Amino acid sequence: MTFCGETILPGERKKLPLPVPGSSPLEAVCLCGASPGRTLAVTAGVHGCEYVGVQALRTLEKALDPAALAGNVVLVPLVNPSGFYAGAKQVVPEDGVNLNRVFPGNPEGSLTFRLAFALEQALYPIADLLADLHGGDCNEALCPLVFFPVTGAQAVNRASLEAAKSLTVPYRIRSTAQNGLYSWAVQKGVPALLLERGGQGVWSEQEVAACCEDIYSLLRHLEILPGGNPPREQVEIVQAVYEEAAASGFWYPAVGVDRSVRMGVVLGYLEDMQGRVVQQVRAEFDGVVLYHTTALGVRAKDPLIAYGRP
């Protein structure tokens, strides 16, 4: 196995730098299986306050045994280190840009664009499947779910969907995004998923264990680990609505995550400083709440709530 110009021998585990133009490198953990097979790349920490995936990869880098693998695994636990250490919501602190909105990157751009460029150059060429781990941010409550692509080549979409079906999350959601770490990978011909678990700036051992099980499921799906996966109970969301704040104000959600809602029901409302309701969010159809903002204060165009239907 070769990663960023470095050779990892069969049965070997090695921490290697992932070069970033004009900045400190990221740290990647490479595990080369004792026998050949496919390669799974997994990233976490694109957003600095989404902790479950970060801790899951820290756990897996110690738990996975290269000698037991038929193939390779590349883990990047902290894609946005400065955002993680600063507790920055959604952005890379150095330039205030959301890393999951700037792909493809630019080696001459600000740090966020250079990070995107570095990840694309290092991971896309070696990955048979890429999984990007996220969660609700420090101001979001979220039901575990996976986004899978519908805008890539047919074979890439199909491979991504089959991988999504192996996961333990209750919902899988069709995604048309194209400018994020996983979604741009799809445009470049790499099957990929975005897995969401946890939120509100906290993590638990139970959530980390569930996230680890999802990665084990992907490894079994790719036959990097033996055993296969049992049938999973998932609901596919074919239509989703992502409501944003019409203005800055005070947000009051009226329903919780993973709750069924009827068409026309009030999902939440936004007040101004004088207590006037400036926005009322109603369900456009019968569906289920996937996530919502828990913060009292929101800015114009901030996410408020997302819901969808099969």
Automatic annotation (TrEMBL):
* Taxonomic lineage of the native organism: Bacteria, Bacillati, Bacillota, Clostridia, Eubacteriales
The UniProt entry, under InterPro entries, shows:
AstE_AspA_cat, N-alpha-Ac-DABA-like, N-alpha-Ac-DABA_deacetylase
Please give the coiled-coil regions recorded for this protein: none
Pfam families with a match to the protein in the record? AstE_AspA_cat
Q: Which UniProt keywords apply?
A: Hydrolase, Metal-binding, Zinc
The organism is Anaerotruncus colihominis
Q: What is this protein called?
A: Ectoine utilization protein EutE
Any single GO molecular-function term of the entry would be: hydrolase activity, acting on carbon-nitrogen (but not peptide) bonds, in linear amides
Q: Which cofactor does the UniProt annotation name? A: Zn(2+)
The residues covered by the Succinylglutamate desuccinylase/Aspartoacylase catalytic domain are 36-222
